[in-house]
Amino acid sequence: MAVFWPLKNCEFVNYDDPEYVTSNDWIQRGLTLDGVIWAFGNAWSDNWHPLTWLSHMLDVSLFGSGATGPHLVNLLFHGCNAALVFLVLEQMTSSRWPSAFVAGLFAVHPLHVESVAWISERKDVLSSFFFLLSLWWYIRYARTAAVVTDTPPSTPPRSNWWRATFRSRLYWLAILFFALGLLCKPMLVTLPFLFLLLDYWPLNRIAEFPSGRRSFINLILEKVPFLALAGISCVVTLIVQKEGGAVHSLVTLPVSGRLANAGISYARYLGKMIWPVNLALPYPHPGHWPSHQSFAAALLVACLSWAAWLNRKRAPFVLAGWLWFLGMLVPVIGLVQVGMQAMADRYTYLPALGIFIIIAWTGARAWRALGLPAWLAALVATSVLLVLAARTRDQLRVWQNSETLFRHTLLVTSRNYDASINLGSFFDDENRLDEALEQYQQAMRSYPNDAVALNKIGSIFARKNDNERAIEYYRRAALANPAFSDPHSNLGVLFKKQGQPELAITEYREALRISSGNPEAHNNLANLLFSQGQVQEAVSHYRRAVAIFPRFAAALNNLAWALAQQGNYPEAVASCERAVNIKPQDASLRESFGELLLQLGRNDEARQQYAKAVELAPNSFDARLGLGRALARLGQRPLAANQLREALRLKPEDAEARKELEACATPAP
To answer: Helix or strand or coil: residue 272?
Structure first.
């Protein structure tokens, strides 16, 4: 907790955090019943991890929308995980100080900064919390399980062993926490195999059964519920990620490239555990690794595996730790390529424990063999942890904000498209347009015909009012990826701004042909249709926008006015009311609702909406004018005059406000 405490001053980053938290309307509402239903019923961001979503919602309910609360929650889970690592290992091995050293390495290793400092990676620390609790209960179950090793063939299937296993409260607690972990992150699917590995060392359950085959089958059978849960999680994850387009085909990245990257990643992970420098988010995938590097990495992994196997009797912890490391990384090693990163620090959060176990137990055995004093071992271990803690503090500075994170990444990696795009987006949001343009152009050096970069460059030129070049880049983006709808939507915005509504409508229709689930495009097209008097079609597109995104407040407000134009006033009022309830602090929505109510003669309700708008935006001319008009219609002329004078102070030349003020000064008949 002390080492990671600077996290409280870190900000959100623009890599996944907007989609996961800051721009996710479901999360920003806090924990609600509708949110719970959404979390379990939707595969947002190409993942199905409902408990992770619920934890982010709870953050907002408890701490508001800032970054400090989520960062401290991540840190709290990491601290709990470090404590659980110690408790689990000590319970398994009865070796206090090696267990403590492993927990210390886990707690302060720089490779774990990404999992803790990145708010979107709540799924790492949360799933690991349940993973370690599942381990805890499994170990307690294994210590007390009554295993029948010599069951006669005539014995009924419902044997003593079967009853002892499936009636054990400890066993079902292990299953429960495994299931909860999978609901946070599916990477935990390897846990049943890890249980079998722990049966070998340190639990020695396999060695206890000289009768061999039947006893080992019993150990496998008790993992069946865990394997079933893991299988379901794998199927759901693959379906969700394929539907979201996150899984790359063998055409994009062939098997040879995946195998080469897997071997090199194993080697790089080992290197960064020992020498944790040049850590980055993300590590770009080169697509093809040089043959000599692939061969060297494969040879290293093979030699280390062979050495672990040869020492399986003399030092079983080496084989157990090595297989822990290799096995837990299998889901994310790139054999099924999701995204285009070659590797990621966050993937080592739990797998690194295997290597830490090898280091701690080998060190303890060597220390005893050399006969060195215990105080010297403590000094060496403490020194190692202090060095790692200092390096972790340095790495935390990288995570201060998006600029520091991606500047660092570009410094320690080459041809990093994602880092350039995200740094450019940060500059874009900060209105540092020239710096943003430079980064987008840098991204195009990695992928010269990239539609995303071309589209973003077009948006920069549009903001600079260089419309000709903006159109050029939008057109290039649309040609580069005909399945990418954003350039057409952006062309629609630009043509509308230039006063060419027909061209804008054409582009919006094309955007919706490519991606009919784009609520912004539906809303923008409806606005143009409404302005041209095509009210019925406008209503249809507004309804579609709201159906796709039920909390789209702007579309609900626009729908209300289109419905009012059709004379459907009850639904219009209901639509405006929904918009205001979604964004109660939006003064413009209050003003719009007040105007609709005023037109319907519901003057007191209009006054309430305008009064709230004035409270939210005291310098809003429209809010002051509307409140003055509502008060005047309620016969409260002095109060109305005060509001109208304020409106004229904000806009002295406005004729309507002056006329309303003069009417207030005229004696009532």
So the answer is: helix
